[in-house]
């Protein structure tokens, strides 16, 4: 027998809720075949089979919550089985040691349903994304498809036998269930505003030299088929500033009433996707060049937007940047990525008249917004931190020092 225990599939995960099983007792499964979906505090995660074998026992039913290290399911091994090493729990105060071979977990930004239910939906011509599931956490069951099909048939018959309704009669509310990734965002945002005392500091800076610096880099022969955005510069500036202002590279331990300062700098970047906000993470950003950050960021953004980002890609941040982009707002007040103590919002770059040594010139400006937990950080350190970030963005030659 092989006991497969619930691994730590997230940063400091203690427990997860079983959303739905893809297998049942007595079923033979192959290695890497979908086994179960679980809901963590960040996302719905699909866990695959670690070996080939027969399912002898399931560690819980749909809707049950199980703790890390407890039995997820039990296998009876076949001749081609080779049990892997059990994943060890994550120790937050130490750097991650990534094994060469590990189980991959894909973050899913989709309606939850078993493969058999999805196949049935395709056969019936039903868009499963439109179904409100009756299972745990909104999981779509086969009965939901049957009810939807019956209701659709009844609705068609009703329309055929009734005259056109007035506008008032069809003006009904649209109900959108909060589930999956949106539910995780909902809960994390609620934690941030209910536990932290949030305040935002704002500053306008002159980035005329940064615009010229990026343009000169873009014109290099090595950059002929590449494009570098401003975001890698923002990430590098923040990562460097965090080395000087370590109290911002931290989280609050609510139980111990303590500020926990991280020994490494991992920058999360808030990304808007069709399913909601994801935060891919640039690990050890302070030790990487702008070009290394740009390449890694491009890869992470592509994975996030195509729903291929793993839990490893989306966890471990010690500080987060929220960039509104070139078409975004002039100012905003971002919400911290709880339990982090601060977040920096970077906003669109604007070409406008500016005063330089008592003369009016045409230049480029942008604004910064730093939202912080006022329980552990005061206003003066925020001003100093933003000034450090601004020093690099206003004089980008500092990146070369």
Automatic annotation (TrEMBL):
User: Which molecular function terms from Gene Ontology are attached?
Assistant: acetyltransferase activity; lipoic acid binding
Keywords on this record?
A: Acyltransferase, Lipoyl, Transferase
Q: What class of enzyme is it?
A: transferase
Show where the Peripheral subunit-binding (PSBD) domain sits.
112-149
Cofactor(s) of this protein: (R)-lipoate
Q: Which CDD domains does this chain map to?
A: lipoyl_domain (cd06849)
Q: Where is the composition biased (Polar residues)?
A: 77-89
The reply on keyword Acyltransferase is yes
* Gene Ontology CC annotations of this record: cytoplasm
- Give a Pfam family name: E3_binding
Q: Has UniProt tagged this entry with the keyword Coiled coil?
A: no
Gene3D superfamilies associated with the record:
2.40.50.100, Chloramphenicol acetyltransferase-like domain, E3-binding domain
Q: Where is this region: Disordered?
A: 77-98
| EC nos | 2.3.1.-
The record's listing under PANTHER family reads: DIHYDROLIPOAMIDE ACETYLTRANSFERASE COMPONENT OF PYRUVATE DEHYDROGENASE COMPLEX, LIPOAMIDE ACYLTRANSFERASE COMPONENT OF BRANCHED-CHAIN ALPHA-KETO ACID DEHYDROGENASE COMPLEX, MITOCHONDRIAL
Family note: Belongs to the 2-oxoacid dehydrogenase family.
Name-wise, this protein is: Dihydrolipoamide acetyltransferase component of pyruvate dehydrogenase complex
